[in-house]
Amino acid sequence: MKNNYQSILPSLGGAGGGLCALLFVLFLLTSCYKIIRTVAPKTAEAGSTIEVSFTVVDDGSDTQNFVTDWSYAGIRVPSGWEVTVPQGAHQQFAEDWVYYSDGSKVNSQHNMIACDKLTEFYNAACKKSGYTWHGFQSQKKVPKNISACWRNGCDSIKITFLVTIPEDAKPGKYTIDFIGGDEEDDAGIDKYSSYTDAKSSRLFHVGTVNNSYIENKATNLACQIEVTENETGIESIQNSRNKNQNSKSQKGIYTLDGKKVRSTKNTAGLPHGVYYVDGKKVTK
Description:
By secondary structure, the protein is mainly β. Helix content is 14%, strand content 37%.
């Protein structure tokens, strides 16, 4: 593991320093965090794109985690909904004065990309009828440390998703769930051949689902969203219906969507199709 200690860490020299340093490094290997917050709109129209996120913080165990690892995150939405991530989807928040030993800021943003293998693992391990997981991973390994200790620089990490609801989505209430984790090995998720191999791994560290694979569960933080009909679409349909109704009651020739094409009832020369002629439906 490549350590990314902050320059403000105290020296581990002196008598017994080697043993102390070894114990200190072993202490750092354990990463302990939990989901503290999830964010999603309470209502959204069919056909709209919404931003949802989850945030993790230290779980209060005093563990200091100065590591560089892959970040993994999954979101479960109704099947047929699309999920992407914005630029800088992985955000770390810290005090402005904190830097890593290599000079990089802890308070930073990192890109994430779709991860088919993570998607496969989460869908196999945490199934729910009518819903699908979408998995993402950091584009590269990210230096991070998340701890309640004052020496820590990264007090929270936030992952953001963009969810597009289909225009034909049925109005009603839906649930959005999350899973988050990490891997220090350079191979990352590729060192696992199946989700059962990874069931005790850090890929399932936190989540809002009640699943035995999840180490730190927060089922109360699953997001509930109510999808409403697309008002713009409804208005368009209603206007079309109104035009249609008007075409049935007025003199002349009208298309089915209510557009008047002639003031007389002579259809000669018109393209083949269905029209309203003096209020009667006529096929030409």
